[in-house]
Amino acid sequence: MAMEVEENNTAVVAANIEAGIGKRGDVGDNGACIDRQPDTVVHQAGLNQTAGRGSRSGPGAHAATGIRVLKRNIKRNGSRGCVTRKTRFGSRERDWLKGDTQRGCVCLYGGTVDSQPPASGPQASSTPQTDLQLVLCSTSTTVEELCAQRDGQGLYVQLHGDLVRRLDPSERPLQLVYDYLASMGYADPVRVQQEAANSDLSCLIRFYTERPVNADQQERTLLKGVFSVRKGKTQLHKWAERQVILCGTCLIVASVKDSLTGKMHILPLVGGKVEEVKRRQHCLMFSSAGSQAQTYFVNFDTLADYQRWHRQASKVVSQTISLVDLSCYSLETVPEYLFYSQDITHLNLRHNFMSLQGPGGLLNLPRFSQLKSLNLSHNRLGVFPECVCEIFTLTELNLSCNSLHSIPVQIGNLQNLQTLSLDGNHLSSLPEELGGLFQLNSLGLSFNNFSHIPAVLERLSAVDKLALAGNRVESLELCTLVRMSHLKNIDLRLNGMRWVKSESLEAVNQVTQLDLRDNCLDSLDLSSICNLETLHCQRNQLGSLTLSGFTLRMLHASSNRLTTVNIYPVPNQLTHMDLSQNLLEYLPDWVCDCRKIEMLDVTNNLLSQLPSRLLNSLSLRKLLTGNNRLQRVPDLLDHVPLEALDLQHNRLGDLPESLFYKALNLKYLNVSANALESIPPSSQSEESLSTLQELYLTGNNLNENCGALLVGHQNLRVLHIAYNQLLSFPASKLSKLELLEELNLSGNKLKTIPSTVSSCKRLHTLIAHSNHITVFPEILSLPEIKLVDVSGNELTEIQLPDSLPATLQELDLTGNSSLILEHKTLNLFSHITTLKLDQKSTTIATDTPNVSTPWNHGYSEMSGQRNKLCVSVLAVDRFRDRVEACYGIFDGDRNEEVPRLLQCTMGDVLCEELQHSSVDDVYMCNTFLTSHRKLGMAGQKLGASALLCFIHRETSDPGGHFSLTVANVGTCQAVLCRDGQPVPLSKVYNLENCADEMERVKLSKAIITEDNKVSGVTCCSRLLGCSYLSPWVLPKPWVHTEPLCSQDDFLILGNRALFERVSYQEAVCTVQAVRDPRAAAKKLCSLAQSYGCKDNIGAVVVSLHIGEDSCTCEPPVSTTEPRGPPPAPVPMSVTPGPSDTATLSSSSGIVTEFSSETSASEIGSEAGSTASDEHPSSGLASRPERRCSVHPATTLCGIMVPGSVGTGTHPGLFQRQPSSATFSSNQSDNGLDSDDEAPLEGVISNGSKLEVEVDIHCCAFQLRSGVPQTPKDLDFEKRGSDYPNGKMRRQNSVVVSATNGCLLAVCGREIADLKKSPSTSSLFGKKLSNGSVVAPEDSHNLIEVALEAPKKKSGYFTAPAQLDPEDQLIVPPSLEQEVREQLRGQCPLISGPSAPSTPTSLKDSVWDHPHPPAFASTLVPGPGPAPILQREVYDTAL
N or C, which terminus of the chain has less Cβ within 10 Å? Predict the structure, then answer.
């Protein structure tokens, strides 16, 4: 039967989709496949047609419409309402949808299906079931039409898993979805239609047929039940069945039959008591307060009821005021029982959808006779509710964010009103009657549409603060303020103000605080405001500033263009002044005359000298003068109270000799990035009185002689002396710094760290990377050591104590090419949360020749003072198995879940989007929007800044030059070095730096707090996640494409913390000086920390070798295959292109991060979890011809295609790309059965942690392009054996399984838990295609928050718990014998079935496949019957 569609596109096809898997249908009269359950015929208003199969009669039958309901199975996965479509639309539905982009589908949750028995007999239960309905409709279909089709009462919409709102009958659900997707950033109507049909979207917008029930909400709103009740403490009263209600602040006891009309006993509980009655089980005693207190005993039936009532009543009795908080409950009316609580004085109804009508509507609020405070903010009222003007007892009224356009004149009735909040509306005027509220002392008018200060304020004599931030007041006439003599505090920030005029000479005496931040002022003369105490004028365009100094106490004028500041008279009351980020070449003389100045910030100016009188001030405690042009610091003439001095980024050659013994209170000194060759002594005698606690000396020219001068600072806790010229550190001097907690000696020329470092018992952080250290420092015996970084040195061995401190969390040993760790050493490291080691090259004769890419990368992440790392990095040097690259950095600020999820999914999403579009703006934008959707539940409340870089060739010219496409949201940034100069490629979506975004957020009526954060949450206007802040915060990225050329040296990616401290130019100069990508990334992070950064820092450096022809070919070498053992590991090296003659040794080789914790979040935070793809070179004995990006060998996913380059033998048949995967185990095992045996090949075991080799290529594009499977292939796959290619070794209770290139070491008793964990179920069936391996976690699962995200088979979150049996690989017949011979030459782990084994790299390419595995067998079509090597399932091996 063909589906009939009305021409007006309002016809609705409802597909009732029951939870669970449906049974196969029968074939109807027309040959269509239908369910065994009868078709549900829906009613269409205005039509009297009959269905093709005729009308159906009987109970529940509806009028036929000619449109049959189609059944579709949807499997409910048990994650609290999240669903996954099991089958796609049928052909008829797809054809109907393709006919018009205004058609689509809406998922309706929470309805009930009344199943009817079919003619053939009962097949379903007659009881209602919770169902999910898939409704095909158009954008013109209204709620009223949908409800008419299904006899529903209404529809509800929920955004971001938050509040649930009832839709108006005239609203159009599908249009709401389309508008929501368009606001996110989708532009293509076809893509909008596809996204609207995606079940993952339910985490962002979801429709319900009934209001969803929230048990916690019901408990806090109303508790009701029939229990045994006794009145009074004496035995005179008997127990009786009564209805008991706890609502608001009262306990109500009523008759069971006449609960609303009969006699009721009301017991006020505020200030009373609720106690447990021990003589009776599940019994509570409720008592009111006061001398006339009454008591009721209530005996509950169950323990659950008892606990629920006790919990809620305890909250009520503990209150000091009669407050009822019903905020964020999606209420339309308040419970009717609430009106019996006549003692309520404070009622909070914020964030609801309150209506006027109904028994509990707003019209009934005047029934509260003692109500003083009413909060109705964020209720979408649209119109001022005049009924509240009848609550004459009100003293506080909040109607913010309700889209109000006017205030009624009845507002004048509220004569007791003291506080009125009207922020976030559309008001442009106020009624004159408002001026009669003489007790009103606080009036909030921020973020409205006022173009001038309302004149009615002249009559409100009690109002002392004018809150007009975020309006449209473009000019301020000071004479207006003269008439409002009661105003003391004026907030006019974010108004786009251009002028402040003073036409008369009359003084403004009353104003003491003025906020003019974030406007467009170019000059400011406030000398007529003679009593001004505090002025905020940051982020304007001020070139001059004139103030009165009579009472001035605080001046904030940063981020302007000031060359001078005129204040008269001298501000003797001034204590705090911020003039940073201006154009000051000198400090005004009056600054030195300020007698009470305590803090002065003049960083980022053009100062060349400091006045001597300033430094010798007897009041100055904090002086910040970094990033200027100072060449010297004046001598200190006398003892000064200075406590903090910042002199970084100047041109200082020395410091005053008397600095430390004249400034005895100095606790913080930062002189990094200068030209110091020595530091002054701590005292004039042997006895030092220094109180210095933090000293930063990074980036100077200090030598080892400075060590002796540090001895006097015995209170030193933090010492950064990185990137100097230290050849050694005096051992005797270091032992005297007993209070030292953090020591950074990186980037020097140290060959050893003195053993006396063991005297620093409080040391918890030692960073000494990029030196020449050969002996591991003796710091592992320190009781509080947490982090040790000795990467990039020349370590050969490590001498360890018998046991390590339990506090050690991170140990970085990367970049030590000669370091060899014994199994005993690895066992001692078993408890370390993060262990970073170099991946040693284990290239053998069967490895594929390395196809060089004209780039390589290094990265570094530092957690700063936080306990967790909230920055993650994505780095794939060979993306999609092509000469392409993908790099990204994700900063979650204070959350680590979202960065980890983005790191794991965004590479896959980009790969998928590249299949749909080749337009840069389109696929990059869709990658971000899809990643935003895939965050699921985690993205509702949490968010992250994201930056993604994609290096590729233009699709129009595949053999041409490379291009770099960059997309970002938030504050992560990318900088390209071209001809030695920085080229910014990203846009910082920060409200302070982006005027157009600020205006957009203001127009959407967001409340921007004084620290420029949207709703006080984030300063970013665009993020991935934080969907609850939509439409203020959006996920649509900035996209920019830059063609690459031979002048492009490298690319730097960094988060906000990095570029706040390190400028673009300094970052470029730093990388140019270091050259090695990983060492450069580490240096950038170390510099940011030494410059004062305390937050998480992340940096990625990509070294580019783009030549004129991008060719990096090498002559071929002998293809003889050695049959001996694999060659010894060799250091990885990268040969640059023709434009760069230097040979770069890449220290950013494979970095392995071990974790002994089962916390995925901890792995991501402490280890800096990074999805990376880095290629070690092959051994010299087996290195074949290396191909370039212009002339690559014809390979497919690492498998040489027959007929491609090279004939005869294939020395590099299979390609192995190493990465690292870690799993935890509670037992120590070395991977050996005895001391005689060799360890597993490709595995570095440290007991409970393993470093394994896995393929990290994303090859979906090749799998999709393969030749379809033949029936013979499918039949042969089904005959695969259970263990055809598995390698398994069992030791004690630890299983080591080698399957498809992934090796797992999991303690036997943990296996079941790992399989249950949603963050590890994917690891038991599928490895992430971008190389990131997410480890399990017990306490706080990585995707625990995102578990609610709807899952589908092609999505990231649904990697199956077992491999699909159809996931198999094909080897061409011509290569079969050679494969067998190569595998026989390798020593097998155990004797297994005599079946052909697939080499690891061959299996890796398909194991990586992020798409459904049905494409797996299309890898290499053979000319004849191809032997198929079935892959082993993890569950079977384990």
Answer: N
